[in-house]
Write a structure and sequence with these properties.
Helices cover 36% and strands 11% of the residues. The model is unreliable at 1-22 and 308-382 (pLDDT under 50). With 486 residues, it is of the alpha/beta class. The chain has 5 domains: 4-104, 3-Layer(aba) Sandwich (Rossmann fold); 124-208, BRCT domain (Rossmann fold), CATH 3.40.50.10190; 217-297, BRCT domain (Rossmann fold, 3-Layer(aba) Sandwich); 333-367, no CATH class; 368-483, Rossmann fold, CATH 3.40.50. Helix 2 packs parallel to helix 5. The radius of gyration is 29 Å and the shape is elongated. It starts with a helix and ends in a 13-residue tail after the last helix. Strand 11, helix 10 and strand 12 form a beta-alpha-beta unit. It has 19 helices and 16 strands. It has a 4-stranded parallel β-sheet with strand order 2-1-3-4, with helices on both faces. Strands 6-5-7-8 form a 4-stranded parallel β-sheet, with helices on both faces. Strands 10-9-11-12 form a 4-stranded parallel β-sheet, sandwiched between helices.
Length: 486
């Protein structure tokens, strides 16, 4: 049996005041009908002869809180009394926190924020792909359960909470073999910890592991019926969505082994991930969503060019005519496919695939993001007057998902832009291909401009001021208007 002496050492360790007086656990009752755990904690403290007492709210007002070193125990972490104690920087714990520390023979958390339970004690958590309002709520609950929250994913982080797969933090956590869990993990622990002692790392919470394809909507093409049926089953089993129709507004991935077909052509123009079935099966086997860039399905000529580019250290790559042009068979997209794309564009308001009058034009003539791409390079932004010194808030992944090629930068400016892209969560490429989402123009590089004039894939071509202003604002700004490079 645990003796009072055994408990007092860890729990009250360091609770000394002047005159060697021990700190006191002060229990405050506000609504006895809802304070079952508060009474249990009080009875256990008296059982182990811990220095504790009940005080009323009126007595609380008369205490000199600046001189007190008490730990206040409340059942409800809300209301006037709770806010009063917070404003006076008092240490506040919940009754379940006291009960859990008694049960595990550990000390009460020595932190300056309220702790209701110790369910997350010892965990260091960061979030990704979660809306800001929900992320703030998750951070609050984790702290209330004795955990630590960090904005950045560092070596000290023990768990990642992810709303979906695929972010930069997600990739790093996978490489470090860190547990990746859904936000429901935090909410469930919070609900349970009101009634009993719980540890967030217990086996019972394994079901909240982030599914392999969470947030992914997958379409397939060129795959036989039996295999397609199995893929559909596995996608649903691992948290993703299977779509029989290639929809530009909802689909994120196209599973395709042979780089051809109508779906493939449209998926590339819509900047969807076109990956081989090997990516799918390897992800299932590994237990997390693998990086798509290692499994992209590319035509032979572009695939060879891409592999050659990885071996070239120069920032500017010479693109052969075979890599920058398409065969006539690739360019001649069927009327059926064009009509399907137009219908989808019309339904979802994609003006890139619709003329101003709404007429059905060929996809090849409507696939570029800018009407004036043929005049690319006629005007030029003077980068000498741009301020490259910007401060980025740590953990602000404002470039998450952006795949960027820098054209016409060197020396100190190039290094500063690299740091902005890295800190902002973007990915920098050493060549222009259909994977790139943004090309940032500095000094004119005619070879790059010519490639952009003739390319068949979609890409934002922007001035350097776009990324600098985005960094200062802490969010990805719209690429159109003043930032559009022409």
């Amino acid at each position: 049996m645990l003796t009072s002496c055994q408990f007092q050492v860890p729990v009250t360790q360091g609770w000394k005041m002047e005159g060697d007086q021990e700190k006191v656990l002060r229990f405050i009752s506000i609504d006895k009908s809802r304070e079952k755990n508060l009474l249990r904690a009080w009875e256990d403290c008296k059982k182990y002869e811990l220095d504790s007492e009940w005080i009323s709210t009126s007595e609380l007002r008369n205490l000199n809180l600046e001189l007190q070193r008490s730990v206040f125990v409340l059942e409800r972490f809300e209301g006037e009394v709770f806010e009063f104690l917070k404003e006076n920087n008092c240490r506040i714990v919940g009754p379940q926190c006291v009960l859990s520390c008694l049960q595990t023979q550990t000390s009460l958390p020595n932190v300056q924020y309220p702790v209701y339970s110790v369910a997350f004690r010892g965990t260091v958590v960061t979030c990704t792909s979660v809306p800001k309002q929900e992320r703030d709520r998750l951070s609050e609950l984790i702290q209330l359960m004795g955990g630590t929250v960090m904005k950045d994913l560092t070596s000290s982080v023990t768990h990642l909470v992810a709303g979906e797969v695929g972010s930069k933090k997600y990739r790093v956590a996978c490489n470090l073999n860190q547990p990746i869990l859904l936000p429901e993990w935090v909410y469930t622990c919070w609900d349970i910890c009101h009634d009993r002692h719980v540890c967030a790392t217990d086996e019972e919470f394994k079901e909240y592991k982030c599914p392999i394809f969470k947030g992914i909507t997958l379409c397939v093409t060129g795959i036989e019926a039996d295999k397609r049926k199995e893929i559909k089953r596995l996608v649903a089993l691992h948290g993703g969505t299977y779509s029989g129709e290639l929809n530009m507004n909802t689909c994120t991935h196209l599973l395709v082994d042979t780089p051809k077909g109508e779906k493939y052509e449209y998926a590339r123009r819509w900047n969807l991930h076109c990956v081989s079935s090997q990516w799918f099966y390897d992800s299932v086997q590994s237990g997390f969503c693998l990086d798509e860039s290692d499994f992209y399905t590319l035509p032979d000529d572009e695939n060879n060019s891409s592999q050659a580019g990885r071996r070239i250290s120069s920032n500017l790559i010479k693109v052969s005519s075979a890599a920058s042009s398409k065969s006539s068979a690739e360019k001649n997209i069927s009327n059926k496919a064009a009509q399907a794309a137009y219908k989808s564009a019309q339904k979802h308001g994609n003006k890139d695939l619709m003329g101003s009058s709404g007429s059905k034009k060929s996809l090849a003539n409507q696939s570029k993001r800018f009407d004036n791409v043929s005049r690319l390079g006629e005007t030029h932004l003077d980068t000498e007057n741009s301020d490259f010194d910007v401060r980025i808030q740590p953990g602000n992944m404002f470039l998450d998902g952006c795949k960027i090629y820098l054209s016409g930068f060197s020396g100190e400016k190039l290094e500063k832009l690299r740091k902005i892209i890295n800190c902002g969560g973007g990915t920098r490429f050493n060549q222009v291909n259909e994977i790139v989402s943004h090309v940032i123009i500095g000094d004119k590089v005619e070879a790059d401009l010519e490639l952009l004039r003739n390319c068949e894939f979609q890409v934002f071509v922007v001035s350097v001021q776009w990324i600098l202003d985005s960094a200062r604002e802490g969010k990805k700004l719209a690429e159109e208007g003043e930032y559009c490079f022409t």
